[in-house]
Design brief:
By secondary structure, the chain is of the alpha/beta class. The chain contains 12 helices and 10 strands. It folds into 2 domains: about 170 residues, 3-Layer(aba) Sandwich (D-Maltodextrin-Binding Protein, domain 2); about 100 residues, D-Maltodextrin-Binding Protein, domain 2 (3-Layer(aba) Sandwich). The longest helix is centred in the first third of the chain and has 28 residues.
């Protein structure tokens, strides 16, 4: 065999080997999904994020024709679930529904995270968001934001502001509100939703920022009253509650967003499939109705939009954390 024939033979062998190695990947993408998909969420069953994840997950399962197993990996403001998925195989069968707590706030607030969301996770689509509501005990004399600020200033730091954990939107939202309105407050962290509600009802704390779904349920029960919402417009669940903009604090416009993430390295065709079908799932009329009734605003973004939004939020909350001086570890 002359050297040209030998070279051609070697080239052909190389091409054959490359094609052979690519076949499993192509077949895997083409048949995706062919087994149950795990969808992790960092909050307990019955909470707003869990309701969103289960509702979206079921609609997604119906579209892709495979079961979706919701895994509640609770703790540390969503960090446990986020860390677990970040270290999972990048095959499209390990997905995460996360909010700004573990993605945008935690990297700036905690120096010993077990994961790096910017490097280990890929935003797929923003599926929904919910706004936050300033709530106080029903017995409090304040009936609006102005009266709350007046009472809080008079207390000169003695007002206790409850949160659902360090590094959560309610935590740094409380910090932002205090800076905007010019009052001092003591931040008190709780581990469980029920503990915050009990503390508010018993007067141990005087305020909290709650998600719209949770706040609406407590207000309806008569235990708490709402003073304002961070939404751009009034919530259909609480049409009587003004926005912070209406109350004179237009910069209090932060929301809790929820994005589906996949581990970095997940094949792009699979990411595209997840994005497309998840958007179809949450925007389906029946699913949208359920989520809106639960207090969520349905989004369903492109991957590019999700990437841009997360990057912007990372910068925003990093500044807030830095200005607060908070160090989680």
């Amino acid at each position: 065999m002359n050297r040209f024939a030998s070279r051609r033979a070697a080239l052909a062998a190389g091409i054959t080997l490359a094609l052979a190695s690519a076949v499993p990947s192509v077949l895997a993408q083409g048949s995706y999904p062919d087994k149950p998909i795990k969808l992790a969420v960092g909050f307990a069953p019955g909470t707003g994020p869990d309701i969103l994840t289960r509702t979206a997950g079921q609609a997604f399962a119906d579209i892709v024709g495979q079961s979706v197993v919701v895994e509640n990996r609770t703790g540390a403001g969503g960090q446990i679930a986020t860390g677990a998925v970040a270290k999972s195989p990048a095959d499209g069968y390990n997905l995460l529904v996360a909010d700004l707590s573990s993605i945008s706030i935690a990297p700036a607030a905690f120096s010993k995270l077990t994961y790096d969301p910017a490097k280990e996770l890929v935003p797929v689509t923003e599926i929904a968001r919910t706004d936050l509501v300033l709530v106080v005990p029903a017995s409090m004399a304040a009936n609006n934001v102005q009266e709350f600020v007046k009472l809080t200033k008079a207390a000169n730091g003695a007002t206790n502001f409850a949160t659902f954990g360090a590094g959560t939107p309610g935590h740094f939202g409380a910090v932002m509100l205090a800076e905007m309105a010019g009052y001092k407050t003591e931040i008190v962290h709780f581990r469980q939703t029920s503990d915050v509600i009990t503390a508010l009802g018993g007067g141990q704390v005087q305020a909290a920022l709650m998600s719209t779904p949770l706040a609406a349920a407590q207000i309806k029960g008569g235990r708490l009253k709402a003073l304002a919402t961070t939404a751009a417009k009034r919530s259909p669940l609480m049409p009587e509650v003004p926005t912070f903009a209406e109350a004179g604090l237009p910069k209090a416009d932060f929301s809790a967003w929820f994005v589906v993430f996949a581990p970095t390295g997940t094949p792009q065709p699979i990411v595209d499939r997840i994005q497309r079908d998840m958007v179809r799932a949450v925007q389906a009329p029946e699913t949208r109705k359920k989520l809106e009734e639960a207090g969520f605003t349905v989004v369903g973004s492109t991957q590019a939009e999700a990437r841009k939004m997360v990057a912007s939020e990372n910068e925003r909350w990093a500044r807030v954390v830095k200005s607060s001086g908070f160090k989680g570890d």
